[in-house]
Amino acid sequence: MRFSCPSLGGLFLQKMDCRMRLKALLSLFAISFIAGSTDLQAIEISGPAKVVDADTIVIGSQVIRLHGIDAPESAQRCSLSGGKSWPCGKVAIEHIKELLTDMTATCSGSVFDDYDRLLATCRNPSGVELNLDLVENGLAWAFIKYSDDYVLPEGIARGKRIGIWQHETETPWDFRAQRWFVEEQVAPDGCPIKGNISRRGQIYHTPWSRSYERTKISPERGERWFCSEAEALKAGWRAPLN
User: Fold this and answer.
1) In angstroms, what CA-CA distances link 72 with 28, 123, 163, 199, 228?
2) Same domain, 48 and 160
3) pLDDT at 200
4) Are residues 92 and 165 in the same domain?
5) Lowest CB count within 10 Å: 30, 41, 99, 114, which one?
6) How far apart are CA 56 and CA 38, in angstroms?
7) Is there a domain that residue 4 lies in?
């Protein structure tokens, strides 16, 4: 069988030797295949839901992160005028619990993050979308680092000056970064996540969780410190439920 070297357009490509021209052609085929395969099949999960925090729930064994939003952390307080503050993290958690009065949710998504959480849009049995509802009520930011799906409803909530928009306040990503920086200065080996063991199992606590300060680590009991959430998850620890 005779092999005919592929002909490619362009002076530069024509000057390649036969093997390089073939490699370039195969690369073009690969790029075309990937470009035509961007629509991933959605995964739908439905059932009783446990609330981890305002933007994270668990259905069965699958942890689900609400797509496109970032809600206040459980220990976070948001600013009010006159130097006052309110427990926005706690309020956001209570709000999503109210949306899940029978603790049932249906979630759909096609992407997993680095922590094996499904990034999804979730609805309660009444059809209310949890992601959108939190943003509309001023209890979550549009997470524009990853998606612009909720920019418009965020703008409406901001205009109404409700929830987190009552006064200029710290975003959850800045809150997490600040808490992490402070705690890694004093944590063993700069690893500030606390791996605690209780009757509820092996639980890890990040510096921005409500129970972080009161959680004590006893290495003699098998408790330990972690340098990242991924490390804690890999070792068999889980985040606390609210």
Assistant:
1) 45, 20, 11, 28, 20
2) yes
3) 87
4) yes
5) 41
6) 26
7) yes
- Please check whether residue 241 lies inside any domain of the structure: no
Tokens of 15: 């000057």
Quick count: other Cβ atoms within 10 Å of Cβ 6?
Answer: 13
Asked if residue 80 and residue 8 are part of one domain, the reply reads no
Same domain membership, residue 86 and residue 186: no
Q: 66, 130 in Cβ contact below 8 A? A: yes
DSSP-derived 3-state class of residue 156: helix
**Structural domains of the chain, count:** 3
Work out whether the CA dihedral 87, 197, 101, 114 comes out positive or negative: positive
* Residue 177: both structure tokens together: 């970064």
Q: Structural domain of residue 157, as residue ranges?
A: 43-169
202 and 136 in a common domain: no
| Cα–Cα dist 229/114, whole Å | 10
Helix, strand, coil percentages, rounded to 5, for the chain: 35, 25, 40
Q: DSSP code of 2?
A: -
The predicted-structure confidence for 107-131, as pLDDT tens digits, reads as follows 999 999 988 999 999 999 999 999 9
> Does some domain include residue 239?
no
Taking residue 151's Cβ as centre, other Cβ atoms within 10 Å add up to 13
What distance lies between CA 93 and its chain's CA centroid?
15
State how far the Cα of 101 lies from the Cα of 234, in Å rounded to an integer.
Answer: 32
